Amino acid sequence: MLAFIIRRVLQSVLVMLVVALVSFSLFRFVGDPISSMVGQEASIADRAALRDALGLNDPFLIQFARFVGDAVQGNFGISYRLQQPVMELIMSRLPATLELALVSGIVAFIFGVGFGVYTALRRKGWASNTIMTVSLIGVSLPTFLIGVLLIWVFAVELQWLPSFGRGEVVSVGSWWRTGFLTHSGRLSLILPAITLGLYQMTLIMRLVRAEMLEVLRTDYIKFARARGLTNRAVHFGHALKNTMVPVITITGLQLGSIIAFAIITETVFQWPGVGALFINSVRFVDVPVMAAYLMLIALIFVVINLIVDLLYYAVDPRLRVDRAKTRH
Amino acid sequence: MSDKTQIPAPRSWMFRAWDSDVAYSFRTSPVAIVAGAVSLLIILLAVLAPWIAPHNPYDPSSLNLMDGFTPPMEPNAFTGNVYWLGTDNQGRDIFSTLLYGARISLFVGFAAVLFAMVLGISAGLAAGYRGGWVDSLLMRVADVQLSFPSILIALLIFGVARGFIPPAYRETMAIWVLIVAIGLSDWVQYARVVRGATMVEKNKEYVQAARVIGAHPLKILVRHILPNVMGPVLVIATIGLALAIIAEATLSFLGVGVPPTQPSLGTLIRIGQQYLFSGEWWILLFPSLTLLALALAVNLLGDWLRDALNPRLR
Which of B50, B184, B250, B253 makes a 20 to 30 Å CA pair with B243? Predict the structure, then answer.
């Protein structure tokens, strides 16, 4: 058990170091860091002095170690384009992305499980067929096109919902600015959340449907029916409960994807989150922001994967049994 | 008498292709026929764009700004010109921009798939045939990469590569960087499938026979093993083409793909979105429909191919 955890953690650290190396080489080899700091009138002697003072003449490994040390403390320097500390920029935009990801995750989970159960229980009904067909289209439509279509229908034609931005935001605590507490903030959240959640919803729905159909065929469901339990108890108490382990695992793993796909949704809806910040940094080759986002997204993915792996190990006894057997 | 005992002349390859199981499955599947026809139509229109497009949308001398914002099938208020699908803000014929846009989308899609395929097949063959540290290194990299969504990987590679390219070349190199980025984000699929199939094939008699007569390992891999692992690769490549087209459209829509001087379908949708609020719906609608039709048709074709090549479903 301990050996497994240690190996898994070491693996995650290794991945993070590789990503850090990519980020570091971006910093080091894209353009001349000195030219982006001093004006044109700086003399060659001044530049050399600054180069020495910043430690740019040190061996590669020492520079890399310093970069990693700074990164661990959240210090990624100053954005070339916005002239603000990168960490400040990211922290000010992180709440927008997290709120959006949270809401779409919850929407995807609730509707995914709901539709999945419904289509599994009523396989032949017209509503099930409609849901399945729409989900097929939802999978093949690119995310950005869904967003654009939603804007067209609900913002341009019907004019029910705003098409861009977060609406009014309120500060909660020292730096978290939330859109949950205002009417316009909640309205602005609807379209982006649907856009971001639709793909995950179809994924969860198909998974729940397949698992439910599988479970409904098993003997213990027949036995539960034979005992005269109500349909409700059989479907939700016995069948659904046993489909939830893989569903929760997949949903957990999809959290990272939601944050990644937020890049697209945020650009379509001009949502002031981290993803939109990253896209702009790619467009203007704003290296510090790119490097910081790279590290942040890698960290999120590595941590989620690590947690899911460890949970799996804790939840699934078979993994432990296998290990115990090989030891004997 | 003699003509009865005559061995029948070998049939032409065209007859054998027509008579094959895959072709039969294609002829009897309406979905595959429609999807194939739509894909073929779009590909043909895109390839022949310079000869069949009514206008060259990127030749400034042929543009008339007065023609701008002409609705589809209606005469323009100033010039009286009629365009099938209308014109955009600069008076470019939408139908022509669509053909040229699909050309770029398809070029990037095919090139990215080809790149991913060559890379993935080589890595998979090497890992499966050699095993050992080559195998564990490649598969470790593949595992890590698979835990990230491929569009994110493409975006990150594109961003990093853009950083390394000197500013003067960024625009001209963009399309190649895009192909490499999308290809690199998708090679893992091929590598894993080819590796698995190679590990099965390499223990079969024909490979051992080739080894016994002293064939070079490279020759065994390319001439003997590769043809036997191509089936699943073709399925992944077809679905991968749809994914690559969507990835390219997404990146171009985000404004980090092909430069505006070579607009692909994604760029056209991006442009069209800006005119949605002023009521010029056709600038957005037609590129979106083309992209959707293309992605859906290629996807359905891939689904069909997967079933057709699956011996268990016959």
Answer: B50
